[in-house]
Amino acid sequence: MVILMSPDCRKAEVAEILAAIRGRGFEPRIISSLSRTVIGIVEEMHHGRVEEMTALLSGLPGVEGIETFGGSFKLASREFRPERTIIRVRDKYIGGAPVVMAGPCAVESRESILRIAEMAAASGASFLRGGAFKPRTSPYSFRGLKEEGLKYLREASNLTGLPVVTEVLTPEDVPLVAEYADVLQIGARNMQNYALLEAAGETDRPVFLKRGLMATIKELLLSAEYILAKGNSQVILCERGIRTFEPATRNTLDLSAVPLLKEMTHLPVVVDPSHASGKRELVPALALAAVAAGADGLMLEVHDNPEAALSDGRQSLTLEAFDYLMKKIERVSMAIHESETGELKCA
Amino acid sequence: MVILMSPDCRKAEVAEILAAIRGRGFEPRIISSLSRTVIGIVEEMHHGRVEEMTALLSGLPGVEGIETFGGSFKLASREFRPERTIIRVRDKYIGGAPVVMAGPCAVESRESILRIAEMAAASGASFLRGGAFKPRTSPYSFRGLKEEGLKYLREASNLTGLPVVTEVLTPEDVPLVAEYADVLQIGARNMQNYALLEAAGETDRPVFLKRGLMATIKELLLSAEYILAKGNSQVILCERGIRTFEPATRNTLDLSAVPLLKEMTHLPVVVDPSHASGKRELVPALALAAVAAGADGLMLEVHDNPEAALSDGRQSLTLEAFDYLMKKIERVSMAIHESETGELKCA
Amino acid sequence: MVILMSPDCRKAEVAEILAAIRGRGFEPRIISSLSRTVIGIVEEMHHGRVEEMTALLSGLPGVEGIETFGGSFKLASREFRPERTIIRVRDKYIGGAPVVMAGPCAVESRESILRIAEMAAASGASFLRGGAFKPRTSPYSFRGLKEEGLKYLREASNLTGLPVVTEVLTPEDVPLVAEYADVLQIGARNMQNYALLEAAGETDRPVFLKRGLMATIKELLLSAEYILAKGNSQVILCERGIRTFEPATRNTLDLSAVPLLKEMTHLPVVVDPSHASGKRELVPALALAAVAAGADGLMLEVHDNPEAALSDGRQSLTLEAFDYLMKKIERVSMAIHESETGELKCA
Amino acid sequence: MVILMSPDCRKAEVAEILAAIRGRGFEPRIISSLSRTVIGIVEEMHHGRVEEMTALLSGLPGVEGIETFGGSFKLASREFRPERTIIRVRDKYIGGAPVVMAGPCAVESRESILRIAEMAAASGASFLRGGAFKPRTSPYSFRGLKEEGLKYLREASNLTGLPVVTEVLTPEDVPLVAEYADVLQIGARNMQNYALLEAAGETDRPVFLKRGLMATIKELLLSAEYILAKGNSQVILCERGIRTFEPATRNTLDLSAVPLLKEMTHLPVVVDPSHASGKRELVPALALAAVAAGADGLMLEVHDNPEAALSDGRQSLTLEAFDYLMKKIERVSMAIHESETGELKCA
Question: What's the whole-model pTM score?
Fold first, then answer.
């Protein structure tokens, strides 16, 4: 249940609403927004209670509306927040010119991650990615260096200034990962792990939420809603390929998701062509296509020795290929940006 | 890493292996099997350690082989265990003649679950299903009665003798749910929630593992392997529909999974046509088809008042329709069983 | 455009309608139906003409209604024809107790097809299938014996009494194939080859229409509508698997299509588990499941020497396996039929 | 069967091969190639004959190799022809800088197509598209103006200089359509209509071949192979979206197909974002993405009054939106081209 206060409501009215909610045994939550105050009750209610609370609260002063929306998303929608969300992470911004998050699939050693981070920064990357906790289809595969890996990521970040994006797999690990990471990544397999979404929603860290392999765009937004409803408004959405019948690529990158999400939500949208295609030779074309489609950023796998990588080496760019691609990305980004302002900058 | 002991190895040899593993800082785990002793090391190892441990252990007496199998499953395979696994839950058996697990999508009230359980038992159901913790796509939907719901399920079970199958959503909830439930259900969205799989694998409760909407049959078996590798050999697999392009049903029930899984694994296979189709009028035909395809059981949604159900009422059978269907199921089951013995029993 | 005449309309009124339509330059077509007269105009009309014709005809006596239905099907629907369509082919009937259509993927030689036909008949098959014109993904694959193959099929049919179902690939071949075949098969790749649908619709042969690999159920019915709209009311629908992400089977057999089609249309529904699964070891379970789901028949690939088959040998049953399966099919069919009448026949 | 002659073979040797083939009752076909002579025998052969012919021909002088390749494509592959195919149509070239094919879904009237063609040409389009023969899912939908529509297209082409791309639905219509059209389009539903592919392969018109909704990339190339094997080497491939589970777009545009096809084949690749997305507001982003991914061209639906279009108006750009998009396409194309030469032209 979400209570929208009128734009000109008074503080005393907000306080009265909070008291009324607590008086009925629920815990209200202020969901801040630039344009108005929104109060959420995230605890579940039985149907009868929903009706009772709606009747009670809608009569109080300062309340503009109450929404219960069964199957839909609200906080993630553009009608709720028309202006685009720009997320600041240290000195970087996600939501304007496209940013590039680069790094290996998994952190493998201190030396390797430091070297990759330095090279990625030199080529113009804005964020460092790398997995310390790895979800693996088989219980017998390498699952990451865990806290040791987080420490190496932090060291690489301190050295290069690149904020760290890294995955967290369980609600219990959220505090540990949040201690080292700048952005918490929730992977495709966990897109509907609601306890994890809510745990991430209770931190002050931006959350990088990947679309599930077989999740619709609406379901992605409903999963983002779980995080937003906990009061964390910093969610970055990531398209990373969906499962289809085509065997030539690991997944089918759904670039239509970029303009569609831009219509439906104010949250930034990043594309990961490495995991989508599973083949490094396809990554440059898809990365450029994502930028041309209007993505706010790219997540790219880069490795100093892809053939020896412990996971997903087949899809990692070499550092040289990454450096070359970064120059192309800049040109396409410039071409797109020029076209939006309606004039050629370099003409 | 899994160490297969030779069928005639001695106890002292097993003890020596266990000591050697502990001496290297790992925690060995006996994975019992009817036909031979198997020792597992589930903790992750770096590549170097894998080689070191393999060299060490393969030289010890009584060891027949060591397998590390990157992307494949072992404990779930028929080559590892040729005989079919039959799982006993109180006085019921899963893995022989088909069993029926019936009940509402969500436990809604004490009265309702007691009434449904009594009627389901009277119609011949063997297990009671019902969700107390409900995973919901939207954060604003009803998420179940939680512990209160578990208590009602327990009461209904005590009254009717039907063991309870109910879903658990997070590793932390496993002990609580295991206190009330006879079988722990892991839902489709959580099929690759590895922390949850491992937590369930550490209990002594059978685990009912649903195939993810986007999961291949091999991935389902690899998720079962996570549970088996923790030493819990009681895993029941459930086909419940996959996502396809067809909009006329909620999901496409993949009945080919039944004979395929029978070839690939010794674990029992149950089919849930209610969630697959999403339409109650399709459930009887698909339930009978599943039995004819060789399923070891069915999970069916039944409700005393489907139109008023808090979730998934559209796919729940009425108690009358369920009673009628149970008679048909028995006849098809008899026809299939007769054909396997090669003679008509009633001829 | 379809003109529904009132059930009690007079012959003179029908004649007047036909004349009015011809007077506007269109060719009317009587689409016979057991319950009422229906007149179709299948030629395309511009939008303006649709309005003009509707105004003209709706004012004439005996006309109950006029439908233009853009995206929907009419003649195939159960509301148009509530009673089930039963199709007679020589002395066989499709639409009652399940029939079995058996034979090789492709006709390979006279000896082979005669031997298979005799054995299939002896085991209880009702129809002989076999391709003389084969659609092949590659231009370099064997495309069938063509007219020579048709002659062998006819000879095998005369010998055994089994009517022949065989595929036709192009509108030009329709007369040739219709000369030898009892039932014209239109394959999955041609489900939306509209010229072919219409050419088959203009014959007096029943048409066996296979669902496309990625066709929705509604699209299958719309393709059937093309045939029905040409005045040929004898259409048999065939579910043969759809394309999904699952690699373990060639296609995913969608058995939900059986009860769904039974709700939506009066046309009989046959299932082909051989092409769906692509693996002979899965065929028996899926064949029995199809019968239990209520299918009006099965199409099964059978070969006297599957390992040497020129196409699709991997999915063909041996003659022995087919014989054994036929006995099982009979038992499941009996169990289903018993349950419908509500009593056990052999009790 | 394809016979590759050695690069330095003599004319007399080729003549001898042709005679030998005719002597065995087959009709050889010279498949010209810039780099060497290739002789094809497209007629089907029984297995025994394949062996016999291979033995016979491989002994003759000038023959470098013989390939029968069951399930694979040859003439479409880059190993067969390393240099890219550039197709000239009047004064336009497909295969270099991206070309734009624009026009309405269906030709609706003379006035409309002339107006659209003039405006499209003024905005920089290179080809005029428009359907005179329309394949429709329902038999009751508008199927195009047929020859009348072809005449209007020709008139519009003569007026503007834009070559015409238009769909042909059946083998019989190929001569008629080829009389008016510059490029024959084979639509997605007909991608595996082999008679149609072969009829188009026997003309001297370039063929625009759309990927089927359910077709893999390999199957698309095998369908192209049908055309190439008839001696027509001018095939343009078109990615236009595949069917997936996602309901927010009509189809899922698979842009990975662009770099993949560029690796696998020498044929040019065009993208149709209008049919893929089904929503005009997504078309600009996807069009730019396709160009950035390296497509050789775009097919775009444009209409002077989309809301009143007889088919697919929902996905057609207005003439104004098209004009604006053309400028963006040029900039992205320039950015991509610059990056390939490694220097900014305008810097």
Answer: 0.84
